[in-house]
């Protein structure tokens, strides 16, 4: 008996809460994270684990990352001519937007701009996923789609005007335009409005740095218009996202006010006997 009690207490880390044993006897300590039973504090690791995207907490972000990973792998292993043909069909350049606008807007968001997928994992983990945890999957997808669509349409409108006025050549109307950067920037802009003031300023500062860096390194008219537009779309949705979502049973609550109150059975019986 002495050896058993010593073994139960020696393996217990400090600061853990006891849990009831199956036999109803002595309560055994339980650690929140078994890997931290050697005197390590679990608060930082718990903070990180609670913010990692998971299919349960972030179905939209994780599902989208799976799609992007699949198309990125396909682009690396498939026939280059086939990949080029599919990406050209998905491009939101001026000519494709005029001929097949819905297909171009939808399929252009299924590819990453380049052969590397890992940066988008971190981009989604720090923008789309935390936004989804705060506003829900449906509204997070709406923010992403709004940034993608508005950023694409406005940038291509500016391109068309520049071509019509002779400031750029007509070949820009056929340049490949795919990727998810507009949706990510819109999500970052929307997320900033849901953070405390200090976090909001940091998020907006980081977003502005990303936009400026993209303009200086790429020096492309489409990027120079689309990226700041998408960021402003996310900022413009602050007021809508700060409102609590409507409950599905809200209509039933309004109808219930007009329903007659139920009379207790004892009162009804006494009135009937009288």
UniProtKB/TrEMBL annotation:
This is Uncharacterized protein. The chain crosses the membrane at residues 60-78, 105-129, 141-164, 176-194, 201-216, 222-241. InterPro entries: Rhomboid_2. Pfam families: Rhomboid_2 (PF20401). The lineage of its organism: Bacteria, Bacillati, Actinomycetota, Actinomycetes, Kitasatosporales. Keywords: Membrane, Transmembrane, Transmembrane helix. Residues 1-25 are annotated as: Disordered. It comes from Kitasatospora kifunensis.
